[in-house]
């Protein structure tokens, strides 16, 4: 069975860095779906488009397609409940998921954003407009990770509670891929 991990939080909360590290530690067989990449790069869609937004359905559809293909999925983004809540809740009803929310204060998100290797060019005022305090999905067993949690503790929590530490890949790569089989011990 495939694992679905949903990692949400405000801009600068550490969700992208955490998701990338969790996927790196897992290895092949785990798809990383980044809201910002799909919405901004693939669709070139601005946030807050209301009912006309394509991104919520597209992102959830991409996650479903990866899960159906046998990939474990880490889906990360701000994923505000106002626009993404209903599609994400429907996904969680259909697919066993572990949902995490990085609960970080506004001041801490601004501090963390400034420390990024490649910060996006936005002001604290712009970030304030994006910030929603404790924007939980309200699904069973949603895990809230407080800002006092270290990066290592956060990654370990995500991997352990989601089951990815004990889950084998289901995809052709690496289980049936010729290249991966050639490298196997």
Write the layout of secondary structure elements.
Elements: E1 4-9, H1 15-26, E2 30-34, H2 35-42, H3 55-68, E3 72-77, H4 81-94, E4 97-103, H5 106-115, H6 124-130, E5 143-146, H7 151-162, H8 172-175, H9 178-183
Parallel strand pairs: 1-3, 1-4, 2-3, 4-5
Task: Characterise this structure.
Keywords: Kinase, Transferase. InterPro entries: P-loop_NTPase. Pfam families: AAA_33. The protein has 185 residues and is of the alpha/beta class. It has one domain (4-183): Rossmann fold. The protein contains nine helices and five strands, in the order βαβααβαβααβααα. It has a five-stranded parallel sheet with strand order 2-3-1-4-5, with helices on both faces. α1 (15-26) packs across α7 and α3 runs parallel beside α4. The radius of gyration is 16 Å and the shape is globular.
In short:
The protein has 185 residues and is an alpha/beta fold. The protein is built from nine helices and five strands; from the N terminus they run E-H-E-H-H-E-H-E-H-H-E-H-H-H. It has a five-stranded parallel β-sheet with strand order 2-3-1-4-5, sandwiched between helices.
């Amino acid at each position: 069975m495939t694992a679905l991990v949903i990692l949400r939080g405000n801009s600068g909360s550490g969700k992208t860095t955490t998701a990338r590290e969790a996927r790196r530690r897992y290895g092949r067989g785990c798809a990383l779906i980044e809201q910002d990449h799909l919405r901004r790069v693939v669709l070139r869609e601005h946030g807050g488009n209301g009912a006309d937004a394509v991104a919520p359905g597209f992102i959830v559809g991409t996650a479903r397609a990866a899960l159906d293909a046998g990939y474990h999925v880490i889906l990360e983004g701000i994923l505000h409940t106002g626009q993404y809540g209903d599609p994400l809740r429907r996904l969680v009803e259909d697919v066993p998921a572990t949902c995490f929310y990085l609960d970080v204060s506004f001041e801490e998100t601004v501090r963390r954003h400034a420390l990024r290797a490649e910060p996006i060019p936005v002001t604290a005022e712009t970030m304030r407009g994006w910030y929603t305090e404790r924007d939980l999905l309200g699904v069973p067993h949603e895990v809230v990770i407080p800002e006092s949690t270290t990066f290592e503790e956060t990654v370990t929590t995500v991997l352990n509670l989601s089951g990815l530490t004990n889950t084998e890949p289901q995809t052709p790569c690496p289980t049936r891929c010729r290249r991966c089989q050639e490298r196997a011990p």
